[in-house]
Amino acid sequence: MKLVVQRVKNAQVEVENKVVGKIDKGFLVLLGVTHTDTKAEADYLVKKLCKLRVFTDENDKMNLALKDIGGELLIVSQFTLYADCTQGNRPSFINAAKPEQANELYEYFCLECEKNGIKVEKGIFGADMKVSLVNDGPVTIIIEK
Question: Which of 24, 26, 88, 135 has the fewest CB atoms inside 10 Å of its own CB, making it the most exposed?
């Protein structure tokens, strides 16, 4: 499982010109699932994400986590994080999980984040989504398990 985490001032995702998920200050998370991932990987990454200290404190140091600042999550499934571009110019997505497995782990991941007391907004799994954000910093971190 792979996360691309962007610290944002705000972010939203649209499907067919309708906003389906929107947050203010927090993280936009692009989540990719590979075929060997299980709930164990999701649990590890939920803990890591929810405790990730990249928001600035009163001394302008990256020392605060989502809960410390009342931050929110916008989590968007993105199978293209497992693109393999080693051969040719057209990516292979053979390393991405099948949709049924990926959606199950995506939904599980979102639910576990909510159980940590964090507001979670989502995209629509498998939809053609338009994601917009104001990256804060910019701070972008890749976390993998």
Answer: 88
Question: Which domain CATH number covers 33?
Answer: 3.50.80.10
Catalytic annotation, pick one of 34, 36, 56, 80: 80
Report the alpha-carbon distance of residue 44 to residue 46 in Å, rounded.
6
Number of domains in the chain: 1
What distance in Å separates the CA atoms of residue 52 and residue 63, rounded to the nearest whole number? Answer: 9
Residue 132 belongs to what domain range? 2-144
Per-residue pLDDT of the chain (145 residues; tens, 9 = 90+): 999 999 999 999 999 999 999 999 999 999 999 999 999 999 999 999 999 999 999 999 999 999 999 999 999 999 999 999 999 999 999 999 999 999 999 999 999 999 999 999 999 999 999 999 999 999 999 999 9
80 flagged as catalytic: yes
